[in-house]
Design a protein that fits this description.
Shape: globular
Number of domains: 2
Number of strands: 14
CATH topology of the largest domain: Rossmann fold
CATH class of the largest domain: Alpha Beta
Strand content: 5-15%
Radius of gyration: 30 Å
CATH architecture of the largest domain: 3-Layer(aba) Sandwich
Structural class: alpha/beta
CATH superfamily of the largest domain: P-loop containing nucleotide triphosphate hydrolases
């Protein structure tokens, strides 16, 4: 009997609990229904306000995620070279050969060329009255002393003077404007204060990377801006503000005209590779952007070469600029230059011999057309070497991946390219440049060979010259005041 009573009691308790649950459920539904009816009764404006508030929260979340992605990308870039696969190791063995030229990838300070060595009695970093955080960033980058272009331009830049600076490729022009810009930016002022214009997307990414490395201890918001992607994400990210923008002229002007960017407080404009920005391709855009700057502004132009049209720009937009010219000779003293007369049908065989003979660390191979770039990269793979290729018609994601894997991760030794990467691109491990096609202009030749022998190191440039191109080779030699050596064996 007792057992039966206990079972009935438990059953009764369960039933009462279930009734409570059901009643709570009904009450919640009722409350929810009332809440929905109340919300529906609100005026439309109040309902819209609620939606916009949610959107705002979502945007803030997106911006935070984007910032985290940027931080992760920076960490990836700082990582050491990834371990090579067995295929890549076999390729390395194929490239190495007993016959090697005496070309060093990196040298001690005593072996660097005069292009970057400090002059006697030259100022040290501590003499420029830079912020402590920037001095730490300079130390992180391994800049032991200011190069000649940095020593010549930084004091004038810090004083707020306009500058027109001409110096060789690979002598530290980027740091010459990055260091003083970081020092001049006011962290407490959230508005855009400095705009750096460069001609290519790859150079945007490289420049912003150097900005972040030197300015890692400075509380300054830096933003890369370039085309090739939908502008929506950039618009969202720019809502949180940017004090320094590094961008390509077209996308920057587009955002200015849309009202996404304001130049009202932008007192600093830097044009890197200024000769390219003053060419027909970019000149009109550069003039329009320059015309929108406030009256009190500082403009700096940096390049290895300057066209005659630079004087027109100076007269219109600059105020008594300091002119710096460190070009006693046009080519880097550490780059040995060779030529080899080769019939077009024998060029691939010649290239294979070079790749097997040279003490090659990393190498740029330049062609004059996109079609040749793609075909050559394929043929290089077929003859047993790993290579990437890059050109302007590729999707931006593919361009970024190819360049990142070559320059930062070092996954590949050979990059076949058009003139796309000849402007300001700095890959210190490149010690060989091969012109599979002789460039059409002396200016292009100068920028191509400047990818080797960066910051005073040693390198070589080899030009494959078809018999009918002898006249063009002689023209390059005459215009640069050099004499190329014949490449034998």
């Amino acid at each position: 009997m007792k057992h039966t009573d206990k079972g009935q009691t438990e059953q009764g308790n369960k039933g009462s609990k279930q009734e409570k649950k059901d009643s709570n459920k009904d009450e919640r539904k009722k409350n929810k229904g009332e809440q929905e009816r109340e919300e529906a009764a609100l005026p439309p404006r109040e309902r819209k306000h609620e939606v916009s508030k949610k959107d705002k929260e979502r945007l803030e979340e997106i911006i935070k995620i984007k910032e985290k992605i940027d931080m992760l990308l920076e960490k990836m870039e700082r990582m050491h070279q990834a371990p090579r696969s067995e295929d890549e190791k076999r390729t390395d063995k194929q490239i190495k050969s007993p016959k090697k030229l005496n070309v060093a990838v990196s040298k001690a300070q005593t072996e660097l060329t005069e292009d970057v060595l400090a002059a006697e009695g030259q100022a040290k970093w501590e003499d420029y009255d830079l912020k402590r955080e920037i001095l730490l960033g300079i130390q992180y980058k391994g800049f032991s002393w200011p190069s000649p272009i940095q020593a010549a331009s930084i004091p004038h830049s810090l004083k707020g003077e306009d500058i027109v600076a001409r110096a060789k490729n690979g002598t530290g022009k980027a740091a010459a404007f990055i260091i003083p810009l970081l020092n001049k930016i006011k962290p407490q002022k959230s508005a855009l204060q400095a705009l750096v214009l460069v001609p290519t997307r790859e150079l945007v990414l490289q420049t912003i990377k150097v900005f972040r490395e030197i300015g890692q201890g400075v509380r300054v918001k830096m933003f890369p801006l370039y085309g090739g992607f939908s502008p929506k994400d950039d618009i969202i990210r720019l809502r949180s503000g940017a004090q320094i923008i590094v961008g390509t002229p077209g996308r920057v002007l587009d955002f200015i005209e849309q009202g996404v960017i304001s130049l009202e407080h932008c007192e600093h404009l830097v044009c890197d590779e200024a000769d390219k920005l003053l060419s027909k391709e970019f000149k009109e855009v550069l003039y329009r952007v320059s015309g929108l700057l406030p009256k009190h502004r500082q403009i700096e132009l940096y390049s290895a070469t300057f066209p005659c049209t630079v004087q027109e720009y100076i007269s219109r937009y600059m105020k008594n600029p300091v002119k710096i010219n460190l070009m006693k000779e046009l080519t880097l003293t550490g780059v040995k230059q060779y030529y080899a007369y080769v019939k077009p049908s024998n060029k691939l065989h010649c290239l294979k011999t070079l790749l097997n003979t040279l003490d090659l660390n990393q190498c740029f191979i330049f062609c004059n057309s996109i079609a040749t770039v793609e075909k050559l990269a394929q043929r290089i793979t077929e003859i047993g070497f790993t290579s990437y290729f890059i050109h302007s018609k590729m999707r931006q994601e593919d361009r970024n991946m190819a360049f990142h894997n070559f320059s930062t991760r070092g996954e590949c030794r050979i990059l076949v390219s058009t003139d796309l990467v000849t402007r300001g691109i700095d890959v210190p491990s490149v010690n060989v440049v091969i012109n599979f096609d002789l460039p059409c202009t002396t200016e292009s030749y100068l920028h191509r060979i400047g990818r080797s022998g960066r910051f005073g190191t040693r390198g070589i440039a080899i030009n494959m010259v078809a018999p009918e191109e002898r006249g063009r080779l002689q023209q390059i030699e005459a215009e640069l005041g050099i004499e190329l050596l014949p490449f034998s064996n």
